Amino acid sequence: MNTGRRPKTRLGSLLAALAITGASLLLGLPAHADEPSAGASAAPKENPRVDLILDVSGSMNIADIQGKSRISVAQNSLNEVIDALPGETDFGIRTLGATYPGNDKTAGCQDTKQLFPVGKTNKVEAKTAVATLRPTGWTPIGLALRGAAQDLGKGDATRRIVLITDGEDDCAPPDPCDVARELAAQGIHLVVDTLGLAHDDKTTQQLICIANATGGSFTDVRTPQQLTDKVKQLVDQSNDTYTINPVRTTGTDKCESAPVLTPGVYSDREKFSEHRVYKVPVKSGQELRASVSVGLDRAMARDYGVLLQATSATGQELVRGTDAGSTRTDVISTGLRWSTDDSKGYVTASPTTSAKDKDKPDTTVCLVVSNSLAPQAGVHTDPGMPLELTVDLASASPAPEGAAMGLGRGWILLLTLTLAGLFSGLVAGWIARWRIAVWREN
């Protein structure tokens, strides 16, 4: 039995090896993958920072989450979150409505304070502070958001506010949606995620508005476990900070007035069906590599796409990259490559730049980001969706050996692949006949 299986195994291995070898010889494929760029290994400069805002207003006493009060569910969830905190996360807690028990609205609407400072967490002290909370007062969400932004401080890494509440702000002004937009407009890499413990339409719409304004998420909490799992997830996401912090930029609608970008990572915001343009100077012998990711931080209408184009200063398209989707996703991305030495998109230049090439003026390439996105009914359109653009300039890659014959271009590539398949088929047929002959002899 075993002697019948081994030739089959050898045959499969031999065919695979011959096919790969034949294709490699004919196509001139490289024997190894491209090496990563030197700048890709930079480490984050800052620890992830998270500030959790907990609503401790009077309505948190209501017992409607599987028979438990809203405040007890929140406290138990926070205990589990604190126990599971990653060691590198700077974590803090701010309250609203926790200290003023009176009926003076002016005083009650100032009731927000830092319960536990953002930093390295003493878990015993943090859980003890949470256990002392008793539902008391009003709901100044807007003021608490401003306070949390101050708690987190300034920096380049993305920081996160997690808001847990059971009602809408009853202290405006400031309106919490306006505060969220104000924070987003400052370009301080601040994301606000909201979790609602009550399910009325006004509260839900306000929490969605806050989250959308900063590129965060909204969760309608129905069970204690859902609250615990979601907060843990958000804290874990804060660890995915940028290894290269994006530089804030603002694209324009025309290439002439567009900002000039050098290799790096950039952040911007793009509205629905908008065009954002940026300029990149490319030297002779260089290859431009660019990619764009747009965060779909709100509900989209079906059938959408994002387009990244490289054009000349006069508007002639050089190359494009597209990505499309039809359902709700988190991010949609695309990219492109273009070399100054081949306007049709084929890269044929030598990796080195000659002396005469150094004297050639830079080519101005306009990167155009556009989208065919549309919001679902009732979704806010401002601010624009978060956009991240990566730009790199590398030595133009040499063409494979045989480029002079046109290898790799159009029908010749198809012919080469056909010959490789024919070669593999002939070898397979010869081996099959040999096996049959051996079998008959035995």
UniProtKB/TrEMBL annotation:
Record-annotated VWFA domain positions: 49-238
Alphabetical list of Gene3D superfamilies matching this protein: von Willebrand factor, type A domain
InterPro entries membership: CLCR, VWF_A, vWFA_dom_sf
Keyword terms, alphabetized: Membrane, Signal, Transmembrane, Transmembrane helix
Residues annotated as signal peptide: 1-33
Membrane-spanning intervals of the chain: 411-432
Protein name: Alpha-1-antitrypsin
